[in-house]
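Hi R.,

Here's the chain you asked about this morning:
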Amino acid sequence: MHTLDEIDVEILSLLGEDARRPFSDIAETVGLSGPAVSDRVARLEDAGVINRFTIDVDRSTIRGGVPIFVQADVGGASADVDPLRERIGDADAVEHLFVTAEGDVWFYARAEGRNVRRWLEELLGNGDLEYRVTLMDDVEWRPSLGGTAFALTCAECGNTVDSEGESATIGGDAYHFCCPSCRERFENRYARLEEGA
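And here is the predicted structure, written out as tokens:
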């Protein structure tokens, strides 16, 4: 198992700033060749560290709306969080969605100016849920990888995978394990589930 080194973290940081940055530009910054950067990015994709390359659209430039931040108090009832999270996440006006450790759902959206209350009632339900709405003056979204410690987690036990760990492709997906016994337990359970299917 190859752990992430400083160059991997720097590559991730550069791609986080601009996912369309050419590998030749990244190579110049990190001191590698373009093909070496391409190989590292492919390895990070295979390992599941990079899941996709996306764009970050500033919706304020393409449509209006009232920028609001909503804090919905679900009350820690985990059964209620998933349907609410899905419903909110599917709304076109919602740009960022968060679930707190307490199980509450917070989100940032650009709601239609004249009907904010009606839109929220339709989205959250009439009186089913307590929520607070804050009108936003300015929003800046800056996800950062700087200073973040990256670590893969074991698919079997959840522990951190270090240089002693192993990787395996099972059923077409890449999995990482902290030790050979976790890999063996996972493979055995996977095989039993495949036989029962």
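One quick note: The domain at 1-49 is CATH 1.10.10.10 (Arc Repressor Mutant, subunit A).

Cheers,
M.
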